[in-house]
Amino acid sequence: MTAGYPKRKVGPMTLKSPLLLAFCCGLALLAAGCKKDEPAPEFAWQIDQFADLRVLRYQVPGFEALTPKQKELVYYLSEAALCGRDIIFDENYKHNIKILRTLDAIVQGYKGDRHDPRWAAFMTYAKRVWFSNGIHHHYSNDKFAPGFDADYFAALVKGSEGVTFPLAEGQAADDLVAFLKPLLFDPAVAAKKFTQDSTQDLVVNSAVNFYEGVTQAEVEAYYKSVVDEKDETPISYGLNTRVVKKDGRIVEEVAKIDGLYGPAIAKIVSWLEKAAGVAENDHQGKVIEALIAYYQTGDLEKFDAYNVLWVQDTASLIDFVNGFIEVYNDPMGMKASWESVVNYKDLAATKRADAISGSAQWFEDNSPVDPRFKKKEVKGVSAKVITAAMLGGDCYPSTPIGINLPNANWIRKNHGSKSVTIENITYAYDQSSLKSPFGQEFTFSAELLERAKTYGPHAGNIHTDLHEVLGHGSGQLLPGVADEALKNYSSPIEESRADLFALYYIMDDKMLELGLLPHADAAKAEYDLQIRNGLMTQLTRIQPGKTVEQAHMRGRAMVSHWVYEKGKPENVISRVTKDGKTYFVVNDYPKLRRLYGQLLAEVQRITSEGDYEAAKALIETYGVQVDQELHKEVLERYAKLNLAPYAGFVNPVLTPVVADGRIVDVKIDLTEGYVEQMLRYGRDYAFLK
Ligand code: ZN
pTM (2 decimals)? Predict the structure, then answer.
């Protein structure tokens, strides 16, 4: 039982680089081509780069057009989003807050030489901790090593003036340094945020702060004793708790207003109360009140009640996520990380998703899949496109670009779910990558590069919509086939199925007919990119000597290698070497589409019949192995580009305009720097110790 990869949330786990966005579950390739309002050219999307990270800004189009009351609501929800910052730090590791406060104090108070190269190394470390909400890499989960030594760290603490260090009662600065040294500098201490190595005790060997003083066996025994397996509407056991041993007994500390994380939750609740007062409609008011009731008690039945109300709220323009939501930081897959996203509907882009979902039955009926495996009746698929206005907790600075909630299966089944794509975030990724040398390095010709620039972003969006809105929901299992029949191959097979559905249809005339693509060349640009990625460029994310492991990447590799091999007799795709560099070039698009269709039919058959052996053969043959020579070449070419593979975002600054004691407007400002923002958050949203 491990957390594995998030299935429902498309996001930080998979976002590696703007150009690689394309290759993750349901990710917009290079999104938002349909946005006509180009920002002023001088808008700097990227504002910082360090280690393997880039920091970008996102724009918030349409904010000015909200009514004053709507802006006020966004403002309150945004404050509630920021008030949980300490929670995610503490969840990620029990000493993260102390480390954070120490780093913040040094950054603000150090009076020594800031031109010393060690200072630059220290700043890089501080920026990484801010970025990851703790001392472990947000993606690899490994503790990162400071680029300076412990003596320098001690000197920094000693040389800082006019700031407060997080000293315990009677503690001297030297004691603090002695306490923190092993946490920062000893690679063996808290080495991994969480481990997925099931030969080890997953609980004991994970640094996450969901458990204290208990073993995996104790945790499993405890939950076995409390879980009611007959309950058809079960609560999400353990979602908002920390399991500890008290007087030899296993107990759960519950996150609530007067419990675990109480001071931060109290602040969140106070902002939610204000938000409830300016809700857009009665139903939304009830949603917010239900969330407050849950935070006041920590009662997970109340959390479910909130989720049911939340999923039914489709009328409001403004929406939000706020709470203990995703469980993939817990090696046991139960405990949720705190996160928040405040957003409003992007009406124009939502029309695009509607055009696709409105034709869902047509797509199902016309797919190349055996009729036995098709859905006779495609249920209402709802999807909306949103604009993020504030990111918090585990969604900041590294953020998802799509969310599908709630997670409780019985709520999804009985009440549905909300699926969103966050367009202004993908747009920021795209814009920041336009000048990236990545495309030029790996695209065969100037002509193809030009086509990719013209149509790539738009086509990428449509691919995402097709993958998310239709692909995952298409097809059906034969009676008696279990959901988990494909076991460890189910995720890569499922992702390849959704991709193949998208790839097959993106080149269909229906796209032009529905007005979804401007030109048939757009689909070709998408094919170029998918082939290049699956056969070559996604190798930039794999360490030398390793094989493809991540589910989405396996799916992409399998699809591309399969069509490449099967198309060889007719030279559908060729491998070309130019100036010693390898490229993959598509020669025949209609034939490639036919191959995608054939593979879609086969992958659907495997899924519908639960054919484990066939799934295994497909993935192992085409999706796992890496051509070592090509891998080496790709890594060398990529290294020369000096790109940071992971990106995150700073938030806008929202400032209320008050007249006669009331908020009459909210101003939005996008100019705050990364260090500035982190220090401000550290000052204004520090509620826990
Ligand atoms: Zn997907």
Answer: 0.82
